[in-house]
UniProtKB/TrEMBL annotation:
The keyword Iron applies. The lineage of its organism: Bacteria, Pseudomonadati, Pseudomonadota, Betaproteobacteria, Burkholderiales. This is Cytochrome c. Residues 1-20 form the signal peptide. Residues 30-130 form the Cytochrome c domain. SUPFAM superfamilies: Cytochrome c (SSF46626). Keywords: Heme, Iron, Metal-binding, Signal. InterPro entries: Cyt_c-like_dom, Cyt_c-like_dom_sf.
């Protein structure tokens, strides 16, 4: 019977989800190729995939976690195009979308670090990281 292994797998998953305070990564969040592209493009100097409340030195994170960005824009059909522009051109320091949640510096332009196509690929990936 296949049922018993299946049930024990489900029990393991539930036990894993119940671990107090741990943030579980989804398969997309472990996508090695995307993490490499983000790392090679310099994004991971400021961003993390999963949210961290504070940096080791106690300051707020430099930039919003990809998961938090996915949650914020999950119902916004125009988010993809807008975010690709923001990634390439940098964020407007006078119109911060993450003010108070991250450090004081806005996002500088990234167009020198990656192509428009790679920016689209990264934003596609970021936007599916809803848990
Ligand atoms: C020097 C630090 C830094 C780097 C490098 C950086 N970001 Fe950001 N990013 C930020 C900050 C800060 C914000 C928050 C801006 C705001 O408050 O509107 C942000 C916001 C964003 C947002 C959300 C924008 C919005 O309007 O909500 C996306 C998407 C994003 N970054 C993607 C990327 C990608 C992809 C890369 C790599 C190509 C990258 N970032 C590199 C600091 C950085």
């Amino acid at each position: 019977m296949l049922l018993r292994p299946l049930l024990s797998r489900i029990a393991m998953l539930l036990a894993g989800a119940a671990l107090a305070g741990t943030v579980q990564a989804t398969p997309a969040e472990n996508d090695a190729a995307m993490i490499r592209l983000a790392t090679d493009s310099g994004c991971m100097r400021c961003h993390s995939v999963l949210p961290a409340p504070k940096r080791a030195d106690g300051l707020p994170p430099i930039a919003p976690a990809w998961r938090d960005i996915a949650i914020k824009y999950r119902d916004d059909v125009r988010a993809h195009d807008t975010l690709v522009r923001t990634v390439l051109d940098g964020s407007d320091p006078k119109r911060r979308h993450w003010a108070g949640k991250v450090g004081a510096e806005a996002m500088p332009p990234n167009a020198d670090a990656l192509s428009a196509e790679d920016a689209r690929v990264l934003v596609d990936w970021i936007l599916v990281l809803v848990p």
